[in-house]
Specification:
mainly alpha, about 0% strand, single chain, flat, about 120 residues
Length: about 120
C-alpha cells in the first residue's frame, strides 16, 4: 500500500508543480510539461514492480505509436483558442479529434502488423 501511495504522491507533485510553474514561467513549465514524465514514471513503476524488461520494451513501442495521434492537439488547441473558441469546446474538439486519430492509429498498426 505504501508503494501505491508513493506513486500517487510523486505523480501529483509533478502535475501540481507544472501547473503552478506555468503561472510564473510558462517557457520552463512548457519544457517540463513536454517531457515524457508520465511515461518515465510509469516505466519506472512497472520496472520496480516486475523487473520485466520485455514488458517495458513492448510498452514503450506501443507508447511511441500512441504519442503520434496526440501531437496534432498541441497545434489545434492553441489555434482554436486564438480564433475565439472557448476552452471547453476547443478541448472537446481536440479530444474528439485525438480519439479519431487513435482509432486510425490502431487500424494502421493492425494493417501493418505492428505488434506491441
Amino acid at each position: 500500500m505504501s508503494q501505491y501511495l508513493t506513486k500517487i504522491l510523486v505523480s501529483a507533485v509533478i502535475i501540481a508543480t507544472v501547473s503552478e510553474l506555468a503561472k510564473r514561467n510558462n517557457v520552463l513549465a512548457s519544457v517540463i510539461h513536454s517531457l515524457p514524465l508520465t511515461s518515465l514514471l510509469a516505466l519506472t513503476w512497472i520496472y520496480l514492480e516486475t523487473r520485466d524488461t520485455q514488458l517495458i520494451a513492448s510498452h514503450t513501442h506501443g507508447t511511441f505509436w500512441f504519442v503520434l495521434p496526440t501531437l496534432p492537439m498541441f497545434l489545434v488547441l492553441p489555434a482554436l483558442l486564438k480564433t475565439g473558441w472557448g476552452f471547453w469546446p476547443a478541448m472537446g474538439a481536440c479530444l474528439a479529434g485525438t480519439f479519431g486519430l487513435y482509432l486510425l492509429t490502431m487500424w494502421v498498426t493492425r494493417a501493418l502488423d505492428i505488434r506491441f
